Amino acid sequence: MMKLATAMTILGVNLWAGQPIQDAPGVTVCLMGAWKDTLSVYHALSFASRMYSQIGVTIDWHSNGNPCSAPEAVNIELTDRTPATLLPGALAYALVPYKGIHIRVFLDRVQDAVNAETRPYLLAHVLVHEIGHVLQGDSRHSETGVMKAHWTTEDYNHMAFRPLTFTAEDLVLIHKGIKERTPWILAKKARAETGSAEI
């Protein structure tokens, strides 16, 4: 907790008693696809929002089934019937680096990984992890916490009542990425509209 508090101080943000941070930077996230267990999905979204609020980031969820038109939005596709040959063992992937904007979550694998009671919490952690990659603009992983490459059985068992946290390095990289993300994507969109080549 000391490292997290130090990182928050460096960023000039106040973290007090686990309360959401005022004037937190916002990230627009759009869900696409069809899913049967609507209650679990919305429970996961609420839990993921709480996890991000603890590091001073507000998630603005949209779930009308369509990609967001805003160029800086993060689009998440929830899919099932995942082919066994597609990234075996993975629960999701994000298109990073280069400030990717698309995440695919293998909902069927998430559902099969844990029991029904734990499922919303695992899905929340998967969403938080992949959004973290996009915001950092990097495929790096941390040694501990929610950005760890592989979660253990103990991690799964604790997710519901003791969510995995971000490391201090994750925190700094996410806030840095959010500041750089919108101008980068808008510039990329402008280049595409004018036909400029990107190297």
Give a verbal description of the structure.
The protein is α/β, with parallel strands linked by helices and 199 residues long. Helix content is 42%, strand content 15%. Strands 2-1-3-5-4 form a 5-stranded mixed β-sheet. A hairpin with a 7-residue loop joins strand 4 and strand 5. Helix 1 (2-10) crosses helix 6 (168-194) and helix 2 packs across helix 4 (119-136). The radius of gyration is 17 Å and the shape is globular. The chain starts with a helix and ends in a 5-residue tail after the last helix. The model is unreliable at 1-22 and 195-199 (pLDDT under 50).
CATH class: Alpha Beta
Number of helices: 6
Summarize model confidence as the mean pLDDT: 82
CATH superfamily: Collagenase (Catalytic Domain)
Radius of gyration, whole Å: 17 Å
| Cα separation of the termini | 41 Å
Domains, number: 1
The proportion of strand residues reads: 5-15%
Number of strand elements? 5
Strand order of the largest sheet: 2-1-3-5-4
From the coordinates shown, what is the CATH architecture? 3-Layer(aba) Sandwich
- Characterize the biggest β-sheet: 5 strands, mixed
**Uncertain stretches:** 1-22, 195-199
Shape: globular
What is the N-to-C succession of helices and strands?
HEHEEEEHHHH
From the 3D structure, determine the CATH topology: Collagenase (Catalytic Domain)
Content-based structural category? alpha/beta
Proportion of helical residues: 40-55%
